[in-house]
Design a protein that fits this description.
globular, 150 residues, alpha+beta
């Protein structure tokens, strides 16, 4: 018997503590087309006239050829930005927020959290994608930490 396909939802949340002032961390993560810290990114370009804040659209091309388009839907300087994926993922909905808080003058915490709702897929397919996203967040935040703690 084959596994039935249906819609699945989940939340992915990963955090990292970085030994760097909040201002320095924000400076890096708010440059939303400079994603050297993101795992497997080949290039990122703006698809909008807006280059920062709500309404900014970016297109991310990954090493594996996958292309994801995202639009910024929330922005508060030095606090967070939120975005939704509009194409490129096997999902009906993807809403993510990368937030930043200062733990002390020289230490910051970055949290990357998303809600996702799949296209029709089996539970196994969804769990594989969910686990991929979880690892992607963890590895990318590790890269961000390494790049800022040099």
């Amino acid at each position: 018997m084959t596994e039935p396909k249906s819609f699945h939802s989940g939340e992915v949340k990963k955090s990292v503590i970085i030994k760097a002032p909040k201002k320095n961390v924000w400076e890096k993560i708010s440059k939303i087309t400079e994603l050297s810290w993101l795992n497997g990114v080949k290039k990122t370009v703006f698809k909008s006239k807006t280059k920062q804040g709500v309404g900014t659209i970016r297109k991310i091309t990954f090493d594996d050829g996958n292309v994801v388009e995202e639009i910024i839907v929330g922005w508060k300087n030095e606090e967070y930005f939120s975005y939704i994926a509009t194409s490129g993922l096997p999902l009906r909905a993807y809403h993510a927020t990368i937030s930043l808080k200062s733990l002390d003058r020289m230490t910051s915490q970055v949290t990357w959290q998303s809600f996702l709702n799949s296209d029709e897929m089996t539970k196994t397919q969804f769990l594989e994608f969910y686990n991929f996203m979880s690892s992607f967040y963890k590895d990318s935040l590790g890269n961000l930490k390494s790049s800022l703690e040099r």
